[in-house]
């Protein structure tokens, strides 16, 4: 949006893009064309091609714009040039590898009766963003503003979290819940909606630990935007409130 990249509103970690399923060569290609261009102006090029044609005089002094849609388009160009075998191997390495599946399996096994039930229950583990229905954030005890406030405070607490472990994640949520004089059961439906896109699924705290900080925070930001975002006035007031939460 032509403003400076900010960790508070933009996914700036390279691991986020890895978890989203972007190819390393596409990301390198995209970063290479930010503020520089090939002599023939082509968009897609390899590192070797960039090295061969690099000219410092073609470096722009203007600030480049990081356009996620453009990156996605470029990634698609790279993906379509993979062989079917390379594509399948890449998908397996990305999210269908045994290490990742073994983290998910214990939480799914006790909730399904057939293998065909795995996909609808656990599909959010293999997605980047989710698209929850706004109705999932309607709350019996909290107004729409209070829901947004709760979500934003949770996001800020999780942004400051350095040890991404279930008990630490729980502690962040519990601190906000107690400060707002709520109970954990009042808060968890909102977390389910934001993180999984569903009303219920496997334990959302376990899911957050497995998904990791990048995707979890990204989905919370998405949920807040879905609910209307945070105004400058609210941001200022809620940051003061955040400072008083243990």
Secondary structure blueprint with pairings:
Elements: H1 14-20, H2 24-32, H3 47-53, H4 68-80, H5 84-94, H6 98-109, H7 118-122, H8 144-159, H9 166-179, H10 184-196, H11 204-211, H12 213-226, H13 232-243
Helix pairs in contact: 2-4, 8-9, 8-12, 8-13, 10-12
Number of separate helices: 13
Any idea what the shape is?
globular
Largest sheet: none
* Secondary structure category: mainly alpha
> Based on DSSP secondary structure assignment, what is the total number of beta strands?
0
Give the strand content. under 5%
Helicity level, as a percent range?
55-70%
Give the averaged pLDDT, no decimals: 93
Q: What string, H for helix and E for strand, traces the elements in order?
A: HHHHHHHHHHHHH
Detailed description of the structure:
- The chain is mainly α.
- Helices cover 57% and strands 0% of the residues.
- The chain has helices spanning 14-20, 24-32, 47-53, 68-80, 84-94, 98-109, 118-122, 144-159, 166-179, 184-196, 204-211, 213-226, 232-243.
- The longest helix is centred in the middle third of the chain and has 16 residues, at 144-159.
- The chain starts with 13 loop residues before the first helix and ends with a helix.
- The model has no long low-confidence stretch (mean pLDDT 93).
């Amino acid at each position: 949006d032509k403003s400076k990249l900010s960790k508070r509103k933009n996914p700036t970690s390279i691991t986020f893009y890895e978890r989203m399923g972007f190819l390393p060569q596409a990301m390198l290609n995209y970063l290479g064309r930010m503020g520089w261009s090939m002599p023939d102006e082509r968009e897609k090029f390899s590192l070797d091609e960039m090295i061969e044609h690099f000219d410092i005089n073609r470096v722009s002094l203007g600030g480049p714009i990081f356009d996620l849609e453009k990156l996605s388009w470029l990634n698609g160009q790279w993906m379509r040039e993979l062989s079917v075998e390379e594509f399948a191997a890449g998908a397996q390495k990305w999210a269908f590898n045994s290490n990742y599946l073994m983290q998910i399996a214990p939480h799914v096994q006790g909730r399904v009766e057939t293998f065909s039930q795995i996909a609808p229950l656990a599909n959010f583990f293999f997605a980047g963003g989710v698209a929850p229905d706004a109705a999932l954030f309607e709350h019996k005890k909290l107004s729409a503003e209070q829901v947004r406030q709760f979500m934003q405070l949770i996001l800020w607490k999780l942004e400051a979290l350095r040890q991404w472990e279930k008990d630490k994640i729980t502690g962040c949520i519990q601190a906000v819940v107690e400060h707002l004089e709520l109970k954990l059961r009042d808060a968890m439906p909102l977390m389910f909606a934001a993180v999984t896109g569903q009303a219920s699924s496997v334990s959302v705290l376990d899911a957050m630990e497995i998904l990791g900080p990048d995707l979890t925070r990204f989905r919370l930001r998405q949920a807040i935007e879905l609910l209307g975002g945070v105004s400058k006035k609210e941001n200022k007031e809620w940051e003061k409130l955040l400072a008083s939460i243990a």
